[in-house]
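Repro case for the chain-ordering regression, as requested:
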Amino acid sequence: MVSPSHPNATEIGRLDGKVVVVTGASKGIGKATASAFAAAGAKVVLAARTRETLEQVADDLSVGGVSNPDSILVVPTDVTDVDAVQRLIERTLHVYQRVDIFVNNAGIGHFGPVVDFAPDDWDTVLNSNLKAIYLCAKYALPSMLAQGGGQIINVLSIAAKVAFEASAAYCAAKAGALALTKVLASEVRQQNVRVTAVLPGSVHTPFWDDVPQHPDFDQMLKPEHVADTIISICQQPPGMVTEEIVVMPPLGIL
Ligand SMILES: NC(=O)c1ccc[n+]([C@@H]2O[C@H](COP(=O)([O-])OP(=O)(O)OC[C@H]3O[C@@H](n4cnc5c(N)ncnc54)[C@H](OP(=O)(O)O)[C@@H]3O)[C@@H](O)[C@H]2O)c1
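-- result from build under test --
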């Protein structure tokens, strides 16, 4: 006999009607995550800087029958820009009236030894991978708190925990983002907001397009692996929270 507190298989699989914002939704992990949420029945807000690529993702989801066009919203957003982040939340609330899940996924890498690393690149990496998570959490949280709960998923990296040469800005940003995630989780857990850090190893995405020395693409995770991990976290029953999860290729750090 199934315990009354144990949801049945169909309840576990669906996220029908949940309003989910995914940043960096035009490519790689974000695109796969947006697609997985749409397939699970969620209303998905696609955010990244480039309107054309976001609209292509929205078209693919609609034409492919994964999602109803009314359940996909494109909001071009630079997540390092405070005004743009506020507009992202305002537009989401205007169209869907709530934010259930916010996936902080947008991020970039610039690589090189500290001695050669340009100060502007440092600011770009820190703003994109760290400050953006603070901004998005700050402006998404009021609606979650008002509606009685929500979920924030921060896509970080194993670089939050491991020192990779020529990656000081990226490692510092991801380590900072892990600290931010832990503080945030402790600040809002009493208000029923669940906060999770997802730390993937190498994933085969356009992230690596401009990195000359990269690991073997064939050995990397696929973006769908990370997307499936995020979906499964969001399908967990209310009585538990995954605070941190490391997802690695089978061969470990590549
Ligand atoms: N690929 C890996 O091996 C790997 C491993 C561990 C963790 N991660 C992390 O996973 C996340 C996604 O990476 P990915 O591999 O999917 O990268 P990706 O394929 O390069 O995609 C990055 C996405 O972020 C968006 N983006 C970048 N800067 C932005 C900004 N300022 N505002 C809004 N959107 C922005 C990009 O679109 P626009 O350029 O149009 O804005 C794009 O949609 C990142 O946080 C990355 O650090 C990646």
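Ordering looks correct now. The first strand starts at residue 19 and ends at 23.
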